[in-house]
Amino acid sequence: MIGLTDFLIVSAALFCIGMYMIVSKRNAIQILIGIELMLNAAILNLVAFSKYDKINNTGQVFALFAIVLAAATTAVALAIILNVYRQYKTIDPGEINKLRD
Question: Helical H runs in 1-101?
Answer without folding.
Answer: 4-24, 28-50, 58-88
